[in-house]
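Q: My labmate handed me this sequence with no annotations at all. I'd like to see what the chain might look like in three dimensions before we decide whether it's worth expressing. Could you predict it?
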Amino acid sequence: MLNCAKATAGDTFVSDVTFMKKHTPIVLLQSGDAAVAVAPAYQGRVMTSTYDREAGPSFGWINRPVIEKGFLSAEEKEGKLEEHIYIFGGEERFWLGPEGGQFAIFFKPGTDFEFSDWSTPAAIDTDSYELVEQTKTSAKFKHSTELINHSGTRFKVGIERTVKLLRRQAASELLGVKLGDGLRMVAYETDNQITNTGDRAWRRDTGLLSIWILGMYNPSPQTTVVIPFKPGDDATLGPIVNDTYFGKVPLDYLKVEDSKMFFRGDGTRRGKIGITAKRSKGIAGSYDAAGKVLNIVTYNVQKAPNGFVNSMWELQDEPYAGDVINSYNDGSPEPGKPPLGPFYELETSSPAAALEPSETMTHVQRTYHLQGPAEQLNGLANQLLGVELDAIKEAF
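A: Here is what I predict for the chain of 396 residues:
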């Protein structure tokens, strides 16, 4: 049986943090009314955040049943989802790619690309990261690990992750927009680094790694993901969207227009989309019309001489033609089975890291949750995503 949780859109930040502290250490970062809760035992994961730490909403999806049970023994895990992954939830977690393909780190050598053989590496699933530095508004974590990919290549990896709350002025400057006084906001960035701590270079022909940051959010019937993209010829920029990760996404869940796409974040049907770096504008977002919250995710756009790793579950003709931005909507994985959450995700990835010994790759992701008057949110949606709020609300 899958361990599933009820959607927690109604939970407050205080409620979620109080619950989590009973089961795992929580580092609380605060700036004014804004706060971010981080879990060292879950790889320095941002579990949730809020713009009002006393009475505000909790933006991260929290899987209470799994957190409550904690880490299981080998016998307890047998036949359960925890054999493959612990879905603790959390709105911004550190992962590594690729997931699938001949260079996959989620499939051991000699296994098939089937769910029964899929297993999340301990370094991004069960390992605790060491908290090495902390201030009121930031926390730095370190970890080291060894990985082996589907082709048998071994990697020695040093991991460093810093979570930092962003003040209003910094958020305004980073986004290049004015944030009006009527807006309530929580914003934070994570600086994520991987270092080749081995004595051999990481090479394209034997597989490369990438930094992969995923955020789990509370779904609702009125939540829609928006990803702006660069229009242009497919022959030059490639396909606009990859919508076949878990079977083709139907038209009532994905709508593609001239320079933006809409994707449901309602947690009712499993599906995933992705766009390539050539199409990306370095930004994605979502709007929760019920809560009147605009969510924005950005990342550090950088050169990618080795492309982006491909996580499709197959032997790949193009292992470095992967996506830079993804969005996932949860739902039943197969008939008769409950959803994993439900939740929806916004994800970003670094370029493939062809690192020499001691060389480092950095991927910075920034997350902004904005709530306030409709006219102010509408202006921000136009400036940042190129779309009116009404168009988001009426996309489906």
